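CORE FACILITY INTAKE
Project code: CF-77B
Contact: R.S. (postdoc)
Sample description: multi-component assembly, two entities in total
Requested service: structural model of the whole complex
Turnaround: standard
Below are the sequence entries exactly as provided by the requester. Do not edit them.
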Amino acid sequence: MAPLARETDMHTLEEKKNKNRPYKPILEGIPDWPVYQLSKNRKEFIEEVALKSQTRIKELRPNTKQLFDDLQATAYREQNRIKRNPWRVDPKDDSRFWASVKNELVELSAQNQDDIQKPLDDLLGKIVLRYANEIAGDFKPNSYRVTREVIKFWFSRLLNGARVKKFGAFFRSQYTLRDKIQIVGKVKMLRKLAKKGTVVMVPTHFSNLDSILIGWVIHSLGLPAFIYGAGLNLFNIKIFAYFMNSLGAYKVDRRKKNLPYLETLKMYSNLAIQKGAHSLFFPGGTRSRSGKIEKQLKLGLLSTAIEAQRNLYMDNPEAPEVRKIFIVPVTLNYNFVLEAPDMIDDYLQVKGQDKYFPEQDKYGSFKLLAFMFKFFTKGSNISVSIGPALDVMGNYVDEEGHSIDNNGRHIHTRDYFISNGQISIDKQREDEYTRMLSQKIVSEYHRINRVFASHVAAFVAFEMWQRKFPKLDLFSLLRLPEEDLELDYAEFRATFKRVRKKIYELREEGKVYFATHLKGKADEVLKLGIENVGIFHLKRPLLLNKKGNIVTQDLTVLYYYHNRLVGYDLEQYI
Amino acid sequence: MTLSNISDKPIGVIGAGNFGSVIANILALNRKVILYARNEADVKKILETHQHRGYQLHSNIEPTHDLAYIASQCDVLFPMVPSAHFRSMMKQLSPYLHPYHILIHGTKGFDITLPEGKTIEDVETLTRQQVKTMSEVIREESVVVRVGCLAGPNLAKELAQRQPGATVVASHFNEVCQLGKKLLRNDRFQVYENNDIVGVEIAGVLKNIIAIASGALSGLGYGENAKGLLISRGAVEMVYLGRALGGDLKAFLGVAGIGDLVTTCNSPMSRNFTVGYRLAKGEKLTDILADMHEVAEGVNTVRIAKKCADHYKVRALITDRLYKVLFEGMTVQEALEFLMRYPLNVDIDFL
């Protein structure tokens, strides 16, 4: 298939097939890696995080009463969490620690307000230090190396063993993971910028596997290890915990919504970025339950990139060049998401309400390994699109790292933080900048998203069914017995072609990308799409029946896969 | 650098129309001001006489017609040019702007972008893809992000006479609101803040429609009952249209909404009011527009709002009738009869 790269302007992803070419590491030895530097001075770093968080929290809660109330609320919520939602990874002394905090607060409440500021400060210090320790990752070069080799070795064995049916193939290296997972987009730029500045990678989040996948991507692009914001729930699963720990992940505990925790977490990210550690987090906060590309991002961690950049400018007022922070949106494109059936159920249950999703990780180590095996033995590829890098204001940057405006003129990112001729701190201004950045990332996600045949097939089928029952709302539609649902193949094919044509047009306008397999004879592409959508689910979202018509075994899961293409206004072409 | 010498930097005003000149005068009460006029002759005249459009200009005001100069001298700029020229002005200004600039505009009108060779009448509908507020134009055409707008009952003549008045400075950035307040506020001029900039802009634009209608009622010789009816129903219509276009209800109830609406509907001096008045007297739109000095933004706004209302399926009866009067030869009397007979009688249903 011909590569699609036609335009050469910098906003375009180059869709070149990776010719299996390994990328050389951009920094030779692990000791040069910022993440290693960070872990070598781990203790000092944690103390710095704790100290600065404490200062920050005291700025936010300037009087004794406010601080007292906040700590009381924190202790109350933490004790509640321990009772209601304990996890395997929680520290053993959790309940003892929080009981002691509570007792101290009870004692202080009896005293005069004026006398308790000092003990309150100390208590706050203790809490944030504990949090900083909980959050901090522990990157160990040896364990990183081992993990890297283990992953490479076993992936390679699996692939070759499964694909080449000759004796001894198991130990060949004819296929590598790179054949399964395509990396497209601005790879060269990313590698270049990672040498010039600090990269903050922000991928979409659909599956728990994302964390490991993206770790492999970073390594195989020859980039030094990134620090990761990984959901603490992942550490409940032993195999993940092993991988994540050795990859330098720091832990984000979404159960903890209290001020001291959130500020400590943000400070950790902020300081690590300031120290030049390339960093990665999922700005959607949690996996997309609906299967839609994220529309709303969590602003907390995102704001730390902006704050870190501003601090770098502030600390170096005279320097002509300050280490720049680059935001790199990434989309992960799958035919199959292991957790889809459960996530879409969650989504439908709370649709319309913004509430916390309970983290149920029903998939233990064994199930994951079983999935991996299937993944490598059957079809179904994954692709990773690396978007063009942005500065912290969402402006595109060129390969030298200069921010550029719509007319190609250079912009000084520093100027955004200047007021009255001086760099200044303005929390509200930066909140607004964060919101702007998040909107830009969302629009980049949609733009660099890579459409698969399976996405289009799911989208078209579901929309056609919805069209056939115009009076039913979503929930009633999903309750229809699957036996009643059948789409005439010819009609389905015609609609598919219409939508595909529109996707070609969107591609021309630079609004989306598609996998090369989407071009080709409609029947073949459809076959590929139907075969691959949710390929490993027990109940298949799309099938052909004996008459050759389209049927489904699970409309709800089909809805999930259909959602991937929501947001492009394709509905009107059904 | 200390704060005091920074604040010595002059403030820029772009556009030396009525409103621009008056705002320049207000700013000049405690700052140096650079006033940009498009016309070189105007600059010369101001330099010589310190008079412009019948206003005495403050001695702190320095006129220029050099955009590069004004952008390099001022960190804070107040663009005050008609909406029809706004985008082209921004394109000229843009190369000299940096992200440290703050722009607070005072233009009440929409910008529309149409496909090559099309007019508003040719296109089927208009959406927010094509219809932009001035703050959106600033964002699209320049690197400036800290943008604000001025809106409210600001009749240039009254402000020039130092009569009491008020304005809203709207911006997503507190910094911009505070700055606007600091620069504009005096004992005769109250300044309010709002963070819904788009809502405030839209309110300021849509009220021009109702102002034309108010002039028309007046031209027919009707009194205060009719006007009260128009203003209250007009406000409801503004809320509906405004929401469809992305504004928040609150902006429409504030100084930039009701405040501005009542003022313009009662001011025979205003251009939009005059258009309606003369229409009701039987004059043709083309003749009326031919002998007006400055643009009556409302005429264009009616065309745009009508198409948007069609697209977003908003019931906008006054706008719709006014459109027919302006462009389809309906008489004001017929339009009024239609409205008075309309069967829907719910007072308020948006709260």
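Facility notes:
- Residues 202 and 242 of chain B are 6 Å apart (CA to CA).
- The radius of gyration of chain B is 20 Å.
Invoice: internal transfer
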